[in-house]
Amino acid sequence: MDVLTAVTDTNETVLGGALLLALPLALIGGLVSFFSPCVLPLVPGYLSYVTGVGGADLAEARRGRMLLGASLFVLGFSAVFVSGGALFGGFGYLLQEHREVLTRVFGALIILMGLLYLGLFPRLGQREFRLHTRPGLGLAGAPLLGIVFGIGWTPCIGPTLAAVNFLAMQEATALRGAVLMVAYCLGMGVPFIVAALAFRRSLSAFGWVKRHYAWVIRIGGGMMIATGVMLITGLWDVIVYELMVWSADFQVWI
């Protein structure tokens, strides 16, 4: 098998039509999770903790230290989320013979996650599973804090993360599930790193987002509900087919 054939086969395996549709949804889901009311207000505290720099000194801290601390934190929770995506994707492969029924079940569950995110079931939505143990302060504890953050099941990111995991199971391979979760982690992690590099400027942007939290919630919940409706009605498969036809026209040049 030559290099071109190998690259083409890999592209078809990893970037099929369903994944091309799911990737931007996962990326947006990560952004919505970052800007959610239970993550964004804690960003200064996380940055202070993972860099070992006091909150009042964050704006004057060295960019190299801020970048390293934020990156290690993001790598920590990404390791947890990507592993989960691979697990859900691999499990989905075992259930392929029931794909038609499960697609509609996943659609209904994603709609439920959207309703939870919109706050329509406050008692259920406020439930959480969390590890309250904190690792050591500073760069050495940054990846461990990221792992603790990733294992935590907070009310705000829980529905979004669950919806992306359901999509990972829909992908039906561990690799595609992991790739999907990488997109989610980029959506959540890149803003965190940007905030670390431009802390003072990011505060004003965060203030604007806080004043428009209602729209963050509506966009996140609406996106999940729309995805669930597409899965239930079969519109998802129609769009996936069109993407497969569209992507088949592309060639990889070495």
TrEMBL record:
The chain crosses the membrane at residues 20-47, 67-95, 101-121, 142-168, 174-199, 215-236. Pfam families: DsbD_TM (PF02683). It is found in: Membrane. Residues 20-232 form the Cytochrome C biogenesis protein transmembrane domain. InterPro entries: Cyt_c_assmbl_TM_dom, Cytochrome_c-biogenesis_DsbD. Signal peptide: none annotated. It is a multi-pass membrane protein. Keywords: Membrane, Transmembrane, Transmembrane helix. Belongs to the DsbD family. This is Cytochrome c biogenesis protein CcdA. It comes from Streptomyces bohaiensis.
